[in-house]
Amino acid sequence: MNQTMDYKASLLQRIEDKTARVGVVGLGYVGLPFAVEKAKVGYAVVGIDRSAKRVAQVNAGQNYISDVKDEDLRELVGRGLIQATTSFDCVPELDVIVIAVPTPLTKNLAPDLQYVEGVTAEIAKYLRPGQLISLESTTYPGTTEEVMLPILQTSGLKLNRDFFLAHSPERVDPGNARYTTKNTNKVVGGVGPESLEVAVAFYSKTIEHVVPVSSAKAAELVKVFENTFRAVNIALVNEITLLCDRMGLNVWEVLDAAFTKPFGIMPFYPGPGVGGHCIPLDPHYLEWKAKEYNFNTHFISLAGEINRKMPEFTVEKAIRVLSQMGKPLKGAKVLLLGMAYKANLSDYRESPAIEVYKLLKKGGAEVVFHDEWTPHVEEHGVVADSVELTDELLGAVDLVIITTNHKNVDYERVVRLSKAVLDTRYATRGIQSPNVVLL
Ligand code: SAJ
């Protein structure tokens, strides 16, 4: 009787002895650190990215992700353990393929899976027996099994006999030096027990603690819940900020005091809005899917509504500060300090500072920004370059709005030289001055 090839056993063996060749689709803030971690322990890694520029940078050992050490990438590329390509024709040589491509929203907050579907269709063209496919992109529960699996099955291959399919959500906190790809607990869910077994074996080779769950769907919901937890709690402190403004209370004092409670609370802080490619977007993937079950996720919708209101509130507060100086918004000179979506990184995608910039311009203000992390900004119709933070500039503008609390700014100097400062991040904590207004 001809023994049908046990593809699972041979794949497990290759994972175990590190002869498995690993593919990473999407060389961004998730994919490139992952590729480096896998190569560091000896796996040969092929990065696939649609950007020829990124592919060329990787093949030249030129790092572009701040969470990756330049010398690590250079060394691993030099040793031939990492290479990159724009083509999927390398797929047949790969044993494990990890997908970390963007999952954005459409303009009316519906999931946009074009990248996940496109990549899966490319992989399906080349799929062969003995391969594990793992989706890491944040998405709604059901994507891996209901969207990816049917596309992969067009290959004619059989799930859990020929190929294996899993979801293992990325948990990268950009800029977090303490928690990295290696030491952040990793949830893994398979489409069937065999897929779970193979995926757990793969991730366990480089990640200290792997957390298996019963299905890919459960793993998808774990991640969307994590980001929803943050979005809702950020919205809660933002809502308290709006109320404190009406009550004439200092929300920062209230929150600082609340967070002295040693148990049962977790610090979140208000701001000019919520940016990045995760927190403002991912929860709406769950909101959209829940409707299929005739279920309204009220917390997600409300959190999104409140967080999206914060840029407007910031400008409203700026108008009040200017009018107390006898200055209408129209013609006022305003300097934004920080365009990145959060402190100490260079990413400005969905940054609330950009929304504040647009609203101020719309109101007729003359707006410039200073942010050494984002020397040039091109997003949502704003195209502008960072200006130098000179004494003259600080003295010349009517209002400075601190929109991102980067640590590389001397806030004491900013307060000393400015007419008025609206601090949306409490970056001026500890600096007492009558010309500072907090959000
Ligand atoms: N923000 C606040 N107040 C807070 C916390 C954050 O206004 O108390 C703002 C930030 O300024 C930023 C936005 O919310 O504009 C998002 O910040 P974030 O740190 O929550 O989100 P990301 O996108 O940088 O990274 C998050 C990860 N962050 C943490 O867990 C701390 C994690 O949720 C995900 O692993 C990651 O998104 C992702 O890729 O999903």
Question: Your description of this structure?
Answer:
There is one protein chain. This protein has two domains: 2-213, 3-Layer(aba) Sandwich (Rossmann fold), CATH 3.40.50; 230-438, Rossmann fold (3-Layer(aba) Sandwich), CATH 3.40.50.720. Helices cover 39% and strands 15% of the residues. It has helices at residues 7-16, 31-40, 52-59, 70-78, 114-126, 143-153, 193-204, 216-247, 251-258, 282-290, 298-324, 352-362, 391-396, 411-417, and strands spanning 21-25, 44-48, 82-85, 96-99, 131-135, 163-167, 186-190, 210-213, 333-337, 366-370, 376-379, 382-385, 399-402, 421-423, 436-438. The strands form three sheets. The chain has an eight-stranded mixed β-sheet, with helices on both faces. Strands 10-9-13-14-15 form a five-stranded parallel β-sheet, with helices on one face. β4, α5 and β5 (131-135) form a beta-alpha-beta unit. Bound molecules: ligand SAJ.
Keywords:
39% helix, 439 residues, alpha/beta, five-stranded parallel sheet, binds ligand SAJ, 14 helices, eight-stranded mixed sheet, Rossmann fold, 2 domains
